[in-house]
């Protein structure tokens, strides 16, 4: 009987060793509680396809972006360069920036027009930058061609970019 009791006690103790509680690790924060830093930007110039491009003079941007609380923040008549940084951006949110471009027709050159939109979002997580951009470059020979293109396709003046982990 002693052998059976000893054997059962050994099995019980061995089983308890494999079913012990896991230690709580304070660095294991649930995804819903993690926060990041996000930087929204409208660049004035950037290198795109090995060429330096610049926003046309007189361009203004209407900007909408997701804030730290998940609500859209809207700004009117922003000029590039522009940026805003949010330090407590929740991991469950998707960083998104969108808007439209307006222009002052009197400041558009008569020839060799490069129309660009340079929105960029940098999401910083664990010291690593996750960059998303949606750079668009359109070349027009004349001011008239640019104005006709905008009239035929008003979406040419829109932009949007998202960034999520």
Provide structural commentary.
With 165 residues, the chain is an alpha+beta fold. It has one domain. It is 16% helix and 48% strand. The chain is built from two helices and twelve strands. The strands form four sheets. The protein has a four-stranded antiparallel sheet with strand order 6-1-9-10, with no helix packed on it. Strands 5-4-7-12 form a four-stranded antiparallel sheet, with no helix packed on it. It is elongated. The mean pLDDT is 87.
Jot down its keywords:
4-stranded antiparallel sheet, 165 residues, single chain, 16% helix, 2 helices
Q: Which secondary structure elements does this structure contain, and how are they paired or packed?
A:
Elements lengths: L1 H17 L16 E8 L2 E4 L2 E4 L5 E7 L5 E7 L3 E9 L4 E8 L8 E7 L1 E7 L2 E6 L2 E7 H10 L5 E6 L2
Antiparallel strand pairs: 1-6, 1-9, 2-3, 4-5, 4-7, 7-12, 8-11, 9-10
